[in-house]
# Entry
Amino acid sequence: MPTLAYAVTDSRIMLRRNLRRLVKYPMLTVMLLGLPVVFLLLFVFVFGGQLGAGMTTASGITGREAYLDYVVPGIILVTVASAVQGSAIVVAMDMTSGIINRFRTMDIGRSSVLVGHVLASLIQALISIAIVLLVAVALGYRPTANPLGWLGALGVTVMFSIALIWLAIYLGLAADSVETASNSPMFLTIMPFLSTGFVPADSLPVGVRQFAEHQPFTPVIEVLRGTLGDTPVPAGSVIASIAWSVGIGGVSYLLALRTYERRAITA
Amino acid sequence: MTHRPGAAGADIVIRGLTKSYGAHRVLDGIDLTVPAGSVTALLGPNGSGKTTTVSIASTLFPADAGSVTIAGHDTVRDARKVRSLIGVTGQSVAIDDLFTGRENLRLMGDLRHLGRGESRRRADELLERFDLVGAADRPVSTYSGGMRRRLDLAMTLVSTPRVIFLDEPTTGLDPRSRRVLWDIIGGLTASGVTIFLTTQYLEEADQLADRIAVLDHGHIVAEGTAQDLKRRVHESEIRLSFDDDESFDAARTLLPSARPVADARRLDLPTDDTVTAMRTTLNLLDAASIDVADVEVHTPTLDDVFFALTGSASAGADATGYVDADDESGAA
# Structure
C-alpha cells in the first residue's frame, strides 16, 4: 500500500478509536455541552428582555425573540470553543497515559493520530451545535436561511472549528497534565463575549470595541448572522473568516505536528 | 559465535550514543551490540540512562550524537522501517484506559494492518496466552497492576515484532506478578525474537538475560554473561566460623591462605573448586581436632558485581534516588 493509502487507513482507525472513546466517556460531552446551553438559557430568559428592548429584526420581531435571533451565532461559537476544550483534554489524556508513545513507535501514518483526533472533535462539535440549535428552536428560534445560507453557515462553522481544534490539540500536546490541558483553551470561551456575539460593537466601551471589531470570532459571527438570518452577508467578514481560519489552523497544525514528533513523555 | 558490529548476526547496534538534557549528560558515548535472538539486559540504577537509551533506539527521539541501527536500519533516517520491526513496552503502561482488553488488542491489530479477521484471531490468541480471557471485555481501568503489564506486553506482541524493547517490565509489581511476567518473557525467547530489556533488578537480569550490560552515569561499565561478570569480581569462598579464639587462631595457622575476619572469628578461604576445597579443608581441621562452628559457601552475586563496578549499593535496594556527590546538580 502506498504511503497516502496508509495515512488514510490509519486516520480512519484513529477516528473510530476516538469516537468510541467519546461514547465510553459521555460525561465529557455532557459537560462541554452544558456550558453553551446554560448561556443560551441565561442570555435569552434572564437578560434577553432587556438586551432585546431596542432590537427589531428585518421581519419585524422585537424584544426577547429578536435577541434570541441575535445571540444564536454567538452561542454557536461558545459551543465550538467549549467543544475544543474537550479536544485538548482527550489529547492530553493520550499523552499522559503513554499511549501516544506507543503510537509513535509504531509504523503509523505521520499525522494520522492527530487527524483522527481532529475529525472526532469536529464530529463532536457539530453534534453539539445541532443540539444547541434544537434548544434554541424550542425557545422560539426560527432561522430564515435558504439552503445556500445553511451551506454557507455550515462551511464557515466547519472551517473555523477545524482551526480551533488544531489549536486545542496543540495546547493538549504541549500541556504537562490533563488539568493544564483543560484550562489552557478556556480563553476561547471568553472570546465570543468580547465580540459582536452578545451585544452590538457600538455599545461596547472604547478598547473592548476595537478588540471586538478585529478579533477572529467577530467575522465568523457576522457571517453566521447573515447566512442564518435575513440580513446581508458582509463580504469583508467572509474574507476575514477564511483568513483567520487558515491562519490559526495552519500555524496550530505545524506546532501540533512538531510537538507530537518531538515531545516524548519519559515519566 | 562472535558478532561483529553491524554484522547480520546483530539486531541492535549502538555506536557512540550521546544525549544531554541541558547541562546534564545522560548518555556519554555508549557502544553496545545486541546479537539476534538474544536476551540482553541493560542493568543500571535509576537515572543511569536506561530509558533514554531505549527511547532513542525505539525512534521516540534522536540522539545528540552517535547512531542506533535495528537489523541494519538507522533509527533516524529509516524510522518507518525500524518501527515496522520493533515492539516497545515502555516503563509506563501504554494502554487505552477507556477500552477493554480485547478492544486494546484489536486496535493494535488494526494499526498493524493485520486485517479484520486476523486482528480478531490474534487478539483472542493473546488474551488466552496472557491469561486475560476472563477480563477481556472489562474496561482496563478495572485491571490490577500485573494485568495491565500483561496486556501492555500482549499489545506489543500483536504484530510478532523481530526486536522487542522492554523498559523496566516488572518495576512496581508484586513478587507473584513479577514471576508470571518472567515466565512470559522467558517463553518469548523460544520464538527467536531479540529482546532488549532494561532493569534495575539484578535478579531480573540474572534470571532473564543471556547477556548483561551494566550502565552507570551514561557509561557502559561492564558487558558479558552473568557468569563473566561474576567472575570479574572475585572467586567463590568457603567461610569457616569458630566459637572461640583458640580454635580460630589454630585454624589461621593451619590455613595460611585464608583471609581472617577477626571480629567474627571467621576465615574466608578463596577457591575455584568449592567441593574439593571443602573436603580437604574439613579433613585438615578434623585431623588437627579444631572445632568448626559453621561452614558456609559464598559465591559472588550480581550485587557484588554491581557494587564493585559502580561503587554503589544494589540498584534494587536503592531505588529512590541515585545521585552521587560528584554528579551534576539537578540530575535525576
In short: The mean pLDDT of chain A is 91.
